[in-house]
User: What shape does this take?
Amino acid sequence: MPSSSDRRADGAAWEDLARATLERHGLRMLATNAHCRFGELDLVMADGATVVFVEVRYRRGGGFGGGLASVDARKRRRIALAAQAFLAARPPLARRPCRFDVVAVSGSADAPRIDWVRNAFSLDDL
Assistant: This one.
């Protein structure tokens, strides 16, 4: 079983891959691994004027629905609460539109598959 530091390093590598992919599509990094009392935001990016909160999920295979299915209602609520805390601490960003994306990464480091879902959920879904 991999140690927690191995899992953190692997998670950081998948987040870096997701970030690079999103940057190639024109998004700009605002923050990574932003912590608050409600949890952690993997990536906070800007897509034009829109603040994008990105949850990155890695699954080696597609069993149990893969990475996209792992962002369940409880996880979405935690992300939304963390996003609200992030915005509350940054009033200029709080006035901008925002959205919630999920990047699901699967496969191996040699052949990763990246599924980016824009507007994966909204506050109305919670």
User: Anything to note?
Assistant: Residues 106 and 112 are 6 Å apart (CA to CA). The two ends are 35 Å apart (CA to CA).
